[in-house]
Amino acid sequence: VQLVESGGGLVQPGGSLRLSCEASGFTDDDPDMSWYRQGSGTECEWVSSTTTFGGTEYADSVKGRFSISRDNSKNTLYLQMNSLKPEDTAVYYCAVDASAPLCIYDLGGDFGYWGQGTQVTVS
């Protein structure tokens, strides 16, 4: 299996970024997919999830500013981030069927599947 994130970068406060996560090799065509993040010196934090049936959930800290979506035809997960704040600065991880907050690159499957992460810096 593979999870490849992209779209991170440096942005000014109030700006926008869109993260992408391309998934491949999964036997489940529509797994539950999530975004997590980990800032410097902070714990791994759940950001948002989308389920097979199209449901979406958001952490209170990003609700109204971030939007998660998926294109099943491209096996790609997205995170549109608007009105970015300095406290959004973190490494953002794409996770499939995550069962615990890891925020490390891990394709072993014991706690789900985790991509390598992409850095988002708001400054």
What does this structure look like?
By secondary structure, this protein is an all-beta fold. It is 0% helix and 50% strand. It has no helices and twelve strands. Strands 2, 4, 5, 6, 9, 10, 11 and 12 form an eight-stranded mixed beta sheet that branches. It is globular, with a radius of gyration of 13 Å.
The best one-word shape is globular
Could you name the ranges where pLDDT drops below 50 across 5 or more consecutive residues? none
First-to-last CA distance = 34 Å
Q: What do the pLDDT scores average to?
A: 93
| Radius of gyration, taken over Cα atoms and rounded to an integer in Å | 13 Å
Largest sheet: number of strands, sense, barrel closure: 8 strands, mixed
Helix content: under 10%
What class do helices, strands and sheet pairing give?
mainly beta
**Number of extended strands:** 12
Number of helices: 0
Strand content: over 45%
Helix/strand order: EEEEEEEEEEEE
Summarize the structure.
By secondary structure, the chain is an all-beta fold. The protein contains no helices and 12 strands.
Name the features.
globular; 123 residues; 0% helix; four-stranded antiparallel β-sheet; mainly beta; 12 strands
Helix and strand arrangement:
Layout: E1 2-6, E2 9-11, E3 17-24, E4 33-38, E5 45-50, E6 56-58, E7 66-71, E8 76-81, E9 90-96, E10 106-109, E11 112-114, E12 118-122
Parallel strand pairs: 2-12
Antiparallel strand pairs: 1-3, 3-8, 4-5, 4-9, 5-6, 7-8, 9-11, 9-12, 10-11
